[in-house]
Design brief:
- The longest helix has 36 residues, at 225-260.
- The protein has a two-stranded antiparallel sheet.
- It starts with 18 loop residues before the first helix and ends in a 35-residue tail after the last strand.
- It has helices spanning 19-39, 44-60, 66-75, 77-105, 107-130, 148-151, 181-196, 200-219, 225-260, and strands at 273-276, 279-282.
- The radius of gyration is 34 Å and the shape is globular.
- The chain is an all-alpha fold.
- A hairpin with a 2-residue loop joins strand 1 (273-276) and strand 2 (279-282).
- Helix 3 packs across helix 4 (77-105) and helix 5 runs antiparallel to helix 7 (181-196).
């Protein structure tokens, strides 16, 4: 089956991308992401209400994957501890590693891939702003969830209050659960591995990584199943918006370049002289001994010695 590209996302970059311009851009987006999580903490009461509303909605839809997974992760440390490491670490390692890999080996694809990821991240920030949501692990114990990050915190580098390093849990927004960007970014990584990996192993990894991440975020009680669904939907919206974002960025870049690039100056004597063989004359001026044209358009002179050029020898007399 032939591979089809999304229109507007696979065009070759007009300018060569450089790592020293890409890195600050990625760091800037991540700074917005972190600042958004910090600034938009939301009211705790509203966050709890939103979390309970999601649970009620899942009950109506007969969706209850979180409870059995969380009980399994809580009861079996050999599953729960690696899952906590997966949740706390791979989110920040695999995604930038794949960005670097695409930048180095798939440069033509990099700009569209990076724009897709960043656009989806900004959409996720809007979700955090409009819908602060209490994750299952922070609900009252009567709802049947156990915080595995706190249970196994002595095994990892994270603290008991969040997946952040010890002592920094208070600096994160723990109510930024809807949508799940853990799942969204993992889905992006899976698509990149499937499309550009080139081997069966990378394609299998492209399927396994987002699926396992989805199981992990529910089993560790960090997200609801609908959070994961929303994370995938955010990535879909970002993919659809990527061609428009790229075209807008190109137009802005073109306008900026036109404003700051001086117009090319034409030579002062352009069109006023005739230059030939190192000799310069004004327009209409004839070289010495140059004959005037005595024939109308289309008329051809007879090839006679009298009309030959000055370089033709005269006939012998």
């Amino acid at each position: 089956m032939p591979h089809t590209e999304t229109p507007g996302t696979e065009a070759a970059p007009k300018t060569r991308l450089r790592w020293w311009t890409e890195l600050p851009l990625i760091l800037l987006v991540y700074a917005f992401y972190s600042a958004g999580r910090l600034m938009v903490r939301g009211d705790v009461t509203d966050a709890v209400d939103h979390g309970l509303a999601i649970l009620r909605m899942e009950k109506v839809l007969f969706l209850n994957a979180e409870h059995p997974l969380n009980r399994l992760f809580t009861r079996e440390p050999w599953i729960g501890i690696p899952a906590d490491f997966w949740y706390a670490s791979l989110h920040y390692l695999v995604t930038p590693a794949l960005l670097i890999w695409i930048f180095r080996s798939r440069a033509v694809r990099y700009r569209a891939a990076r724009t897709w990821l960043m656009t989806s991240t900004f959409i996720g920030l809007i979700g955090f702003t409009l819908l602060p949501t209490c994750p299952p692990r922070l609900l009252d114990a009567s709802h049947g969830f156990v915080d595995t990050m706190a249970q196994y915190s002595s095994y990892g580098w994270w603290g008991g209050e969040a997946s952040a390093p010890r002592g920094l849990g208070g600096m994160t927004n723990q109510y930024a659960a809807m949508p799940s960007l853990h799942v969204g970014w993992a889905l992006w990584c899976g698509v990149m591995l499937w499309r550009y990996g080139g081997t069966r192993t990378t394609k299998v990894a492209g399927v396994v990584y987002p699926l396992v991440t989805t199981i992990v975020v529910m089993g560790t009680a960090n997200h609801y199943f609908l959070d994961a669904v929303a994370g995938a939907a955010v990535m879909g919206a970002g993919l659809l918006l990527t061609p428009y974002v790229l075209r807008t960025a190109d137009r802005v870049r073109t306008r900026i370049a036109a404003r700051f690039t001086p117009a090319a100056r034409a030579p002062a004597d352009a069109g006023s002289t005739i230059v030939r063989g190192g000799c310069q004359t004004s327009a209409g001026e004839r070289f010495p001994r140059q004959r005037e044209q005595r024939f109308g358009p289309g008329a051809e002179p007879d090839p006679s010695p009298a009309d030959a050029g000055d370089e033709t020898p005269a006939p012998a007399r």
